[in-house]
Amino acid sequence: MRIRATVAALSGTLALSALAVPAAQAADGPSSAPRIAAKAAKGANVGDTKITKVTVNGGKNVAVGTTNKVKFSVAVTATDPSGVARGSAFLYHGDLDTADGVLVPDDFDGKCKVVNATTSTCTVTVTVDPKGDLYNVLAGSGWKVYATAGANDEDMAQNEAYKSDAKFQRNARLTTNASPEPIKKGKTLTVTGALTRANWDTLKYAGYTKQSVKLQYKKKGASSYSTLKTITSDSKGNLKTTVKASADGYYRYVFAGTSTTPAVTSTSDFVDVQ
Hints:
four-stranded antiparallel β-sheet; Immunoglobulin-like; 46% strand; elongated
């Protein structure tokens, strides 16, 4: 119920912010803001303002760990014959009436950049804190943007469910350790590691189990890595495999990522082959 009430309050806040009348226009005569506000409260668009694009984090996924706050932007592009004066947005997870997660901007007054006489892009910054804003079921897709825009002539538009392609992901970590070092040519080299990811419920990193991870190798002096084999993380996220040592070079594990977890590449481990 608390989240639902928050969504309702935020929706009203955005509608009112989009209806703020520029000082120059307010001096011209009686404002029609009360009439427009009544329509906006019902979720209706007013006039010919249109929201044409909404972009979250530049279209990239947002990876969040267990301690650090992460900032990203939401850009709302809108058009109106009179020009666009303001825009704002917030994000919610699920359906508007039953949202189970909400991310609000640091300042509802978006910074607007004029594209041309009729179009502007207004950007807000959102700071997400894993210590309260997120929990595991919110990872991945399912997030939508509630966006509004206000024009110079008091028209406004709002899109209550602009689908976001950006995903909120549980940050991942990956390690690699090859041993023994040094090693004789032709002997068996054991390569271990661990794949872990942020648990937003416990605020700790835990093993990411049963995931495919590639072991890659780059010979000393070479410019690129090649994949030696693909293995699966165990029930604790641990990795372990063996290869024959052939020449001095670098070993690393590479995880391609999932919808809820970003791709990650470990720091390479150099092995001296004698």
